[in-house]
């Protein structure tokens, strides 16, 4: 097999089994599993939004939702045109444009929305809001890695910064349609760089600044950028990461395949590292602060077609070569803005914080474009959410009076676990005990006090902060298990804030299945119902739609404005990967169950691509006959992943698996691998359908070797 691990989100949100290019040809098969699933009984409860919340919500009832939803399905052109008209178009799209382009029932797949319409997304994110009187409104709050480092930009100031950079990029010859790679941490310069590219019609490709030099080089070689924008270094928690060195190595590597980049614009991130100690290649490397501030505060907009490319974002693929997911301008703009507005029930007074990095699609649609298109105030956070302690998120929530908080289940779980012990709490506990013992308290009194203090200490990382500002919570990236959902709801949101569990993908551009807070009761762990214009269907192995209560493969019928248009440079792979598996549908790669009330429950990836986010990666590795398994090999496998993909993707555990539990038809039974990985050996259940049940015993024996 040629299966492997590559990338994904913030923290250790790691995706995918795809190409492990090496182990020097020693691996014949590698498999990985995700731990933890919800039990059926946990999935039954209904959690209702409060009357007060619903009455003020944009979509206040299920009834209203159904009305809007029906229209979006029956008359997509009318529905989306009405919404699109709220944006600025230099020239409106021709009316008849929708008729044939939304059909994905037959190839070749060519999705187009608002084609012929002329607009610019940067103009709509910034200039349009200033014209509407929001010039003095805060666009971005920046919170640094270390507490105390922060900054603010109003919409007017944001425009100035964007224009200066846009002017510089034009000056060095970046033109409409040219690619620019952005390898930056969560500084304000990251959304600024995205917007500057959009302003001049350049195509940005943000690469998460946690990817290795090799991954970065691979992306540079694929999209051949005119420039790379980076910074010298960044601090994540207490650790310093030398980003410029990674870029240097990537540029050496890409030059070997004949792709050279003329300009490496480098931001001096002073809180992490001074410029003097940065490696420098004269002629190619340019300090941001030496050039960009010299440019004017205004820069004319490059008006582009709705179908002109806006950005490329690479996601891992099952054959190893990353897929350059291409999004275009008009449809993406309308979709990112509308999904943001409804899924968070956005009000102009909201302060919004999404913990995702702009290196992922979440940071594109829901840090930069979606919120800014709505004129929202966005918190951009550079650091690690548990640094300097696990209370940091709530500290930030209180500091900026965050009302909408959007994060990933992996973070929720880790904060839930680390609810843990704080130093001040420990100190206080010990001191009180000391006082009591000194004053002659009895044994039980001391025990009682200790118990109370432990309780206070455990919950205080969250409860010592007010969090009163919070209104809506959001979750993305993987199914949120009901116990984490409840903790998020009860403890973080004080049982007051609806949770939008948003199911979507890099490819979909925006939310596909998500609660609309206020419109209907939630079930902990369910993404609930489709967004406007989205028609999810569940199909069986043969691609036949199944109705009612069922489970199967999640597909989508017809197109929606935010859909990706192609895989860069490989339209055939686009069709093969997404539209061929179940003809007539877009195949998501996810499994899904629909319950008797029509709620959707995502069950994870079903293809050879899997999400391993948050809990850790457990890899079953099968070696080529005759190659011995050794500690050295184990280490080198882990190192290989670190080097080829990035440290965040490295497996936590390697389990030597001479054979894998397969059914007679050859399907690997991941359920069994999962149980072995989590050592729930008494829950293996029936293994008699396996082609060779002894494989299981063998695996158990090798578990701790
Ligand atoms: C895959 C897409 C979408 C931005 C982050 C990841 C999983 C995402 C949920 C959710 C269950 C989810 C799916 C999907 N996923 N959100 N709310 N519930 N699963 O983007 O890297 O393109 O990954 O993430 O498996 O296919 P991505």
Automatic annotation (TrEMBL):
Domain Acetyl-coenzyme A synthetase N-terminal as annotated: residue spans: 65-125
Q: Which UniProt keywords apply?
A: ATP-binding, Ligase, Membrane, Nucleotide-binding, Transmembrane, Transmembrane helix
Q: Which GO terms describe its biological process?
A: acetyl-CoA biosynthetic process
Q: Which residues form the AMP-binding enzyme C-terminal domain?
A: 611-667
Enumerate the spans annotated as AMP-dependent synthetase/ligase domain. Answer: 136-559
A Pfam family recorded for this sequence: AMP-binding_C
User: Which enzyme type, at the first EC level?
Assistant: ligase
Q: Which residues form a coiled coil?
A: none
Q: What sections of the protein cross the membrane?
A: 419-437, 443-462
State the EC number(s). Answer: 6.2.1.1
Q: Which GO terms describe its molecular function?
A: acetate-CoA ligase activity; ATP binding
Family label: Belongs to the ATP-dependent AMP-binding enzyme family.
Protein name listed in UniProt: acetate--CoA ligase
